[in-house]
Design brief:
Structural class: alpha/beta
Shape: globular
Oligomer: single chain
Helix content: 40-55%
Number of strands: 7
Distance between the termini: 51 Å
Order of helices and strands: EHEHEHEHEHEHHHE
Length: 255
């Protein structure tokens, strides 16, 4: 039986690398992204060239209607959902000092990164519970968090709080769903070369050159996708609610 994986924010960057890797692993892919499909045509051609079976759904995970449409379309087209990768996320539009953070910015970032992840996970988990076990587990939910779940950045406090929230979402769903055969994992990327980090490239270049990262290079979207691939398969079966840092060793405390 061919399984189906949903990847939110899957039209570029980390999300696209995940969608591509899971497609190569044999999954049928459902990509949800806020951009119109026509804007992503050049990127999606790469999936076509690799004979990856996929469908693209435009939508915003902040919207209950869009979340429901995502699940309904995935089930209608491919018969079920076996993996959910909650990758969609945003940074603040403006980096403000913590004392200047606005409620509007907080609500936007939390609404997408945390609230959207939580309620899409709820919806997909309910769908997974309706399905028979396929392979060695009923389903897998993988949340793409960030090293910012633990690392303070006072110029983007709302982002850090949102990712810390994703970590608790991981813990809660892992606890609730383990007995149902659904495993929940978290991946914490560090400094990954994407559109989001391109605006602060000089800052991170300096950190890398200064030795802040034991593996002294930028991470790539493919580095993250490889970990997601491992979690999505049937080899990791006796752990849930844990996270993997994909950060070049940045989390290591050193003297």
């Amino acid at each position: 039986m061919k399984k189906t994986a949903i990847v939110t924010g899957g039209s570029r960057g980390i999300g696209f690398a995940i969608a591509k890797q899971l497609g190569l692993d044999g999954f049928r892919i459902v990509i949800m992204s806020i951009e119109p499909e026509s804007d992503c045509a050049a990127t999606l051609k790469e999936l076509d060239s690799l004979s990856i079976e996929y469908c693209y759904i435009q939508g915003n995970i902040c919207s209950p209607e869009d979340r429901q449409n995502l699940v309904d379309t995935a089930v209608e087209k491919f018969g079920g959902i076996h993996v959910l990768v909650n990758n969609a996320g945003v940074a603040p539009l403006v980096r403000n000092d913590l004392l200047e953070m606005t409620e509007e910015s907080f609500d936007r970032v939390i609404g997408i990164n945390t609230k959207g992840t939580l309620f899409l996970s709820q919806l997909v988990a309910k769908q997974m519970l309706k399905q028979e076990i396929a392979g060695k587990k009923r389903g897998t939910i993988i949340n793409i968090s960030s090293c910012s779940a633990e690392v303070s950045s006072t110029g983007r406090g709302e982002y850090c709080i949102s990712k810390a929230g994703v970590s608790m979402v991981t813990t809660l769903f892992a606890d609730r769903l383990a007995g149902e055969g659904i495993l929940v994992h978290e991946v914490r990327p560090g400094v990954i070369a994407t559109d989001m980090t391109s605006t602060v490239q000089a800052k991170y270049d300096a950190l890398i050159e200064g030795g802040a990262f034991p593996i002294a290079r930028w991470g790539t979207p493919e580095d993250v996708a490889g970990v997601v691939s491992a979690f999505a398969g049937d080899l990791i079966l006796y752990t849930t609610g844990n996270y993997v840092d994909v950060d070049g060793g940045f989390h290591i405390k050193r003297l």
